[in-house]
Write a structure and sequence with these properties.
Length: 355
């Protein structure tokens, strides 16, 4: 064996030892995560990490590699935190709203045997997924009648999360009041703006005060708390059961096909799928958008939808949100993405999924 071969053999032996020690370290971390779960503690302990770094750096005698070791140990700690988050978040699913909201129902349908964690805003759900606080998040994406759910595309652009599932929930809206109330008693209706919009035909001409709430479940809670015959909400039958309320009018949505499309968010991108979504911005040159669309067509992908959205803090500039039908793990997809790079300023893959 030549000199280089001998050196590589030595590196292989060191790597074998490091692999075994890495596996042992991660197994110990599983016990640490169990302890932190039993005694509610934050994953990151800055004091402990700094002490560990200083102690380990003291063992490095070769000054030339101290900086490299610091990078190495920082990465080890990052992996350790990520793994603990993964262990602690397993089985937790985030949604926006409260128990009984349509997002809660969707989370329960997507993950039947999980722990459901409520967050006040869509952005909080995105952050919880991105930070590893939960295994997944479920948020509404668009409604067949009212269109896109505000800000979700912007949040997909801003956060490092991926769509790995998309499914439809048939939504039935109901006018709900307290026990003892009748339809004729109602003068004030609370609900999420989307729900109010979906029931616009039913509400029109009834001389009702409409009050927007954060979500349908909180609207129902308000009705239950107030216990006033003239106040009602628009929500699901599940909410009526949860808050012991009375359904005054069933299926009041303005269309017979009132379906809301939900997406499931995860930290890791799925490799497979027969649909995938992208966001891109095109170069500020004549015909670049048409070239981007033609690139997709030339590659043989079916464009299901394309929508433009204004870029915040950049007046009169837009990004495009696209859904494509095609195998994401096909080599042709990577070639198409490469070709798009010639006419797009940036391209973000939002995730792949099966329908």
């Amino acid at each position: 064996m030549d000199e280089l071969g001998e050196l590589r053999s030595e590196i292989d032996a060191v790597d074998d030892a490091m692999t075994a020690l890495f596996e042992k370290r991660m197994q110990i971390l599983e016990k640490v995560a169990d302890y932190k779960k039993e005694h509610p503690m934050n994953v990151q302990d800055g004091t402990r990490e700094q002490s560990l770094i200083e102690r380990n750096l003291a063992h490095i005698s070769d000054e030339k590699i101290r900086l490299e070791y610091r990078k190495f140990i920082d990465n080890v700690l990052k992996i350790s935190r990520s793994y603990q988050h993964k262990l602690l978040s397993k089985g937790k699913v985030a949604y926006q709203g409260a128990v009984g909201a349509f997002a809660y129902i969707s989370a329960r349908n997507a993950y039947p045997d999980s722990e459901y964690v409520a967050f006040p805003t869509f952005e909080d759900v995105f952050r919880a997924v991105e930070n590893g606080e939960v295994e997944a998040g479920v948020v509404p994406f668009e409604n067949a009648y009212a269109g896109e759910v505000a800000d979700v595309s912007d949040l997909l652009r801003a956060h490092n999360v991926f769509i790995n599932k998309m499914f439809d929930l048939e939504v039935h809206q109901n006018l709900i009041g307290i026990n003892g109330a009748e339809l004729a008693d109602i003068t004030e209706v609370h609900s999420h703006p989307q729900a109010l919009n979906q029931a616009s035909v039913f509400l029109k001409g009834r001389d009702l005060k409409l009050v927007a709430e954060t979500n349908t479940a909180l609207a129902a809670k308000y009705v239950a708390d107030e216990q006033e015959k003239h106040i009602a909400c628009i929500a699901s039958k599940e909410v009526a059961e949860i808050f012991d309320l009375k359904v005054l009018a069933e299926n009041i949505e303005s269309t017979v096909n009132n379906t809301t499309r939900f997406i499931v968010l995860t930290r890791e991108q799925s490799a497979g799928g027969d649909y995938f979504q992208l966001q891109w911005t095109v170069k500020n040159e004549p015909g670049t958008l048409a070239q981007a669309v033609q690139t997709v067509a030339n590659a043989g992908f079916n464009m299901q939808s394309i929508r433009s959205h204004p870029i915040k803090n950049r007046p009169w500039e837009y990004y495009f949100h696209i859904e494509l039908q095609g195998k994401f793990d096909d080599p042709a997809t990577q070639k198409m993405l490469s070709d798009l790079g010639k006419v797009c300023e940036d391209i973000k893959v939002l995730g792949a999924y099966y329908k």
